[in-house]
Specification:
Blueprint lengths: L5 E4 L2 E4 L4 H17 L15 E4 L2 E4 L2 E4 L1 H8 L7 H13 L7 H11 L10 H8 L1
Antiparallel strand pairs: 1-2, 3-4, 4-5
Helix pairs in contact: 3-4, 4-5
């Protein structure tokens, strides 16, 4: 079940199929398993038969996994970090989408160097370019 037509993350799960009938069949199997294990679903949080949805900050659809544009806009409008804690926070947000950014580890290296121990915090030109990119 898992990875064939079911993805699970902590207490959330997504059931999928290549066509409507398969999706309904898979959903039936998952709901039977929930019933057999005495699991109760919160129907207010259930979204059934959707073509597109946000799962863990990513947009999932028939096209695959994409970034959520709202989160990207939020990150893009952050001011330049002024202290190490702000650099760490930015790297955490940007790193979440690192798989969608070509050469993310190379691009972010100047910022990563800022959070190293025993390094003075100097937000220089290279850090600014990395932040903007």
């Amino acid at each position: 079940m898992v990875e064939r037509f079911l993805e699970v993350f902590i207490d959330d799960f997504s059931v999928f199929g290549f066509d409507f009938d398969k999706c309904l069949h898979h959903l039936s199997l998952v709901l039977q398993r929930c019933r057999g294990k005495n699991l109760v679903l919160n129907w207010k949080k259930c979204h059934l038969i959707v073509r597109k949805g946000i799962v863990l900050g990513h947009v999932v659809s028939h096209k695959g996994i994409e970034v959520d544009k709202a989160n990207i806009d939020l990150i893009a409008h952050l001011p330049h970090p002024k202290i190490v804690r702000e650099v760490r926070a930015f790297l955490g947000h940007a790193g979440f989408y690192g798989r969608f950014i070509k050469d993310f580890s190379k691009v972010s290296r100047p910022l990563c160097n800022l959070v190293s121990k025993d390094i003075a915090f100097v937000f220089n030109y290279n850090c600014g370019r990395a932040f903007e990119k």
